[in-house]
Amino acid sequence: MTNPIISLKNIDVTFTQKKRTIEAVKNVSIDVNRGDVFGIVGYSGAGKSTLVRAINLLQVPTAGQVVVNGETFFDGQSSKGVQIKPKDLRDRRRKIGMIFQHFNLLNERTVAENVAFALQHSPLSANEKKAKVSELLELVELSDRSEQFPSQLSGGQKQRVAIARALANDPEILISDEATSALDPKTTNQILALLKKLNAEFNLTILLITHEMEAVKEIANKVAVMQNGAVLEQGSTLDIFTKPQAPLTKEFIETATNQDKALAAISATDVVENLPAGQLFARLTYSGNSTNEPLITGLYQNFQVVASILYGNVEILQGTEVGSLLVVLSGTEAGLAAGLDSLTDQGVTVEILKGTKA
Ligand SMILES: Nc1ncnc2c1ncn2[C@@H]1O[C@H](COP(=O)(O)OP(=O)(O)OP(=O)(O)O)[C@@H](O)[C@H]1O
Predict the structure, then answer these.
(1) Is residue 136 part of a domain?
(2) Any domain includes 15
(3) Over the stretch 48-69, which tens digit does the pLDDT of each residue have?
(4) Residue 312: pLDDT over 70
């Protein structure tokens, strides 16, 4: 079994304001393995930022256990809670880089100075620091901008400066808190590609906090979905996309794969609006080796179920094909029941969106 680089167990974070109590994080347990790109997805206010701030104790939890790299930072069961000395905590925090939506750069300092700022406590000599800054700016492809000021840069360039700064102390973990939320789609993809490259080249573990499942789909191998402080479900990105359980997860996936628009348009068509009795409107989701053609021909050949495909979509997730079909199925009651069972047996997720299965 691999030891997680981050282990959060039964984390609660409760804020008390005057007479109001806000349970920002409720009983959350997450294990992140070295080299994971772990997506934490949820709408604003779900508790994502509070949860990740608990990792480096920028937010001390109310209960639970925080273990990073095998070292217990916090244990709510122990009387003193925080288990690590302030000086050690400062050192450990340098090994956990963070990037944010609004970049948090120092506007009156140049690009190179912004990156160098993160090295102020580093034991490196002045020359070594200079070399390190150049190396980092090269990594994020901003060597030619080193003497410019943040105001002279685009949003994507500012975020790359922030990434270079976050990597200055060779962290093992990078926390990306809505880092692409203020960027346009093309720039978002460039930043995600850079994060993916850092993950692949340096085995950097990345926590990707986002309200956009598209970002998770692009680069995360695992994902947890949060709502009202709690994790609704978590698992490999492939499993979550092919077998989502919670309605919120389904909503995120529909948006990320543009199925929401297709579903709305198709649901309004005559064939679905006036679905005859005995027919079913369904979504079939499959991954890996199944492809839609044998599935559909199998339904007809074995069960005399006719499937009209109203919409089809294929995504590549972690190198695996994930297909979704919106279909109207017609056949005999027994044929439909057996046909759907056979799809399930083949690992296809079947959701009946309209009509009733006998
Ligand atoms: N220091 C604090 N004091 C009181 N309440 C807080 C504090 N920090 C966060 N909260 C509350 O905790 C809840 C979770 O906030 P959090 O910022 O973690 O959510 P989020 O999912 O990261 O959303 P966003 O992306 O909008 O920041 C919210 O209701 C927020 O108002």
Answers:
(1) yes
(2) yes
(3) 999 999 999 999 999 999 999 9
(4) yes
Domain count, the chain: 2
Residue 22's CATH number: 3.40.50.300
* Residue 171 Cβ contacting ligand 1 at under 6 Å: no
Say if 144 falls within a structural domain: yes
Cα 17 to averaged position of ligand 1 atoms, centre (Å): 13
CA dihedral 34, 36, 42, 45 (to 10 degrees): 30
Q: Give the number of the atom of ligand 1 that is nearest the alpha carbon of residue 25.
A: 14
Nearest CA to ligand 1 atom 13: 24
Question: 295 CA distance to ligand 1 centroid (A)?
Answer: 45
247 within a domain of the structure (yes/no)? no
Q: Are residues 286 and 137 in the same domain?
A: no
Report the CATH number that the domain containing residue 267 is assigned in CATH: 3.30.70.260
- DSSP labels for 213-263? HHHHHHH-SEEEEEETTEEEEEEEHHHHHHS--SHHHHHHHHHHTTHHHHH
pTM (two decimals): 0.91
Q: Choose one of 12, 49, 211 to mutate for the ligand 1 pocket test, by most ligand atoms within 8 angstroms of C-beta.
A: 49
pLDDT tens-digit map of 124-179: 999 999 999 999 999 999 999 999 999 999 999 999 999 999 999 999 999 999 99
Domain that holds residue 27: 4-241
Check whether residue 235 and residue 263 sit in a common domain.
no
The ipTM estimated for the assembled molecules is 0.95
Task: Identify the residue whose C-alpha is closest to ligand 1 atom 5.
Answer: 15
Interatomic CA distance for residues 22 and 16, integer angstroms:
6
Q: Which contacts qualify for 80-86: CB closer than 8 Å, 24 or more apart?
A: 82/57, 84/57
How far apart (Å, rounded) are the C-alpha atoms in residues 73 and 84? 5
Q: Are residues 307 and 341 in the same domain?
A: yes
Give the pLDDT confidence of 252-300 residue by residue, as tens digits.
Answer: 999 998 888 999 999 999 989 999 888 999 999 988 765 666 888 899 9
Q: Is there a single domain that holds both residue 265 and residue 138?
A: no
- Please give the Cα distance from 239 to 285 (Å, whole number): 11
Q: Which residue, judged by its Cα, is nearest atom 28 of ligand 1?
A: 45
Cβ–ligand 1 contact at 49 (below 6 Å): yes
Q: What is the pLDDT of residue 7?
A: 97
Instruction: Indicate which residue's Cα is closest to atom 1 of ligand 1.
Output: 15
- Please check whether residues 289 and 334 belong to one and the same domain: yes
How far is it, in rounded angstroms, from Cα 34 to Cα 92? 16
